[in-house]
Q: What sequence folds into this?
């Protein structure tokens, strides 16, 4: 899906990245915990989160995440927007809760950037 | 300690400065991009740096993160002055955390940090002296293992 299609689907506002609406995104990751995003998200995905602080943007930047969808109508600070502009991370904003956002995206064919966290594999790898 | 000849950046971090958490990771990423380091390597360095930075901000009075680019690897070295870690083995277990609310509000403190640094490193080393500070070194090979 393009960022524009994602925006329309979720009645979202484009806060940062008007010029990147043709960006194609096929995978997503949803979490409020940036520790988990850093551990499990993959580059190129859409980050669905209710955390609207500078750390969310910096986490997205660290992982080359394509864009952030802020859900639950969370308020955005000037600092958050300023850092997103500086780091070139598109920000979309919707009033839908995370469950609805993920459900609607999934119905349209978007999939998780990973499907599950394989605990046994992880233990074996150590 | 890696060879000082390859020291490419030294960043100072003030403890409890939650607003700027992650800024060293962002700055280091920009710098490594300019240096032409491969994207996959930069992502690993950015994750390691982010976690190390959050740890210093959360638990130490102050600290430094240094980055060394050597011909076959990138090394991140984090050193802080602070409470240190009583049991470094326990602290590396996923889910073990002593984080307070200010850390959790930032989106961290789930007890994933050290385990995540280790998972992104090809070589990992940590040592700590309680009430003095912590030293952490992560090396990422440029051409896999």
A:
């Amino acid at each position: 899906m393009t960022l524009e299609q994602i925006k329309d689907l979720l009645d979202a506002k484009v806060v940062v990245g008007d010029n990147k609406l043709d960006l194609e995104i096929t995978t997503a990751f949803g979490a409020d915990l940036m520790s988990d995003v850093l551990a499990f998200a993959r580059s190129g995905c859409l980050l669905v989160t209710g955390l609207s602080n500078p750390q969310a943007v910096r986490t997205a930047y660290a992982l080359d995440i394509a864009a952030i969808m802020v859900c639950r109508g969370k308020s955005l600070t000037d600092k958050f927007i300023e850092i997103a502009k500086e780091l070139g991370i598109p920000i979309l904003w919707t009033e839908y809760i995370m469950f609805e956002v993920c459900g609607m995206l999934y119905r349209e064919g978007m999939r998780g950037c990973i499907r599950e966290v394989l605990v046994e594999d992880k233990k074996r790898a150590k | 300690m890696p060879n000082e000849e390859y020291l490419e950046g030294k960043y100072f971090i003030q403890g409890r400065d939650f607003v700027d958490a992650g800024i060293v990771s962002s700055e280091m990423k920009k710098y490594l991009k300019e240096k032409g380091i491969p994207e996959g390597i930069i992502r690993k360095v950015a994750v390691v740096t982010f976690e190390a930075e959050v740890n210093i901000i959360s638990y130490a009075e102050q600290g430094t993160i240094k980055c060394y680019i050597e011909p076959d690897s990138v090394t991140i070295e984090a050193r802080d002055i602070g409470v240190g870690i009583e049991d470094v083995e326990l602290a590396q277990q996923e889910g073990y955390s002593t984080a307070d609310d200010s850390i959790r509000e930032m989106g961290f403190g789930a007890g994933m940090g050290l385990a995540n640094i280790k998972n992104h490193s090809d070589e990992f080393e940590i040592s700590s002296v309680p009430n003095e500070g912590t030293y952490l070194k992560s090396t990422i090979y440029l051409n896999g293992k």
Notes: Chain A touches chain B through 22 residues (CB under 8 Å).
